[in-house]
Amino acid sequence: MKAADKSRLIKNIIPPLRERYGQVPKPPELPMLEHLIFAILSEDATEAKAEAVFQKFKEGYFDWNEVRVSSITELREVMKDLPDVDNRCARLKGTLKRIFESLYSFDIDGWRKLSHKELTRRLAKFPANSQYVVARLIRDGLKGSTIPIDNDTLRVLQRLGVAKESDKPEKIAFGLSRIVGKNRNCEFTYLVAELAADVCLPNEPKCENCPIAKLCSTGVNRLQPPEEQPKTTRRRKRKATAKDGAAKKKKKKKGEK
Ligand code: SF4
Questions:
Q1: CB–CB of 109/103 below 8 Å?
Q2: 206 C-alpha to center of ligand 1: Å?
Q3: pTM (whole model) above 0.90
Q4: What CATH fold (topology level) applies to the domain 1-202?
């Protein structure tokens, strides 16, 4: 897709998404450590789910050191509503451990003075490292304009035709930050995460309930009558339905045992 078409598309999807999912909550001012923790909790999750887990930690634990020394089983219970919980527990615990073992404290507010490049370099050694976490910390802690791209955002952008499967998150974020701009960055991330959790689901998107179906190339193809769909879409759809059926059968079998 040409840059001008991408720009037009991104600008056009914001109003219907805003109408469906509402205004983005105002990002709170937090210490750097908490911005980092929130970034780990919110990757591939909605703001509301991440916020609920964040508040459980704030209210149920004396401090972040208590979280660091808690067992994975206990952390898993607190974070059970977030996807990929085991991996997320390990990333959170590993990050707290790494900070504590290198500083003997959790005060990383000095990182606010770092350049984006230096912060990216430091976080590269952390167990929680990902483009999403780094970009979100730069955006929320350093007031930068980088767009955080997680798997959910990537999936939506690929289906919209804005990103190719071979595009790296860093490249996508660079192009998008020019289109979205600093002022709309938080709103864009919030709206796309809501869309991904609501209808643009990983296995089978619910295009028939999507507020931007008419603007999305995948949605337009999928909602066409079967005889008008390109062969590749029909094949993909048949494959997805077969996969879905097999998964359901497997689940049923398991339940019978
Ligand atoms: S139309 Fe379908 S594929 Fe496109 S964004 Fe909506 S749910 Fe996703």
A1: no
A2: 7
A3: no
A4: Endonuclease III; domain 1 (1.10.340)
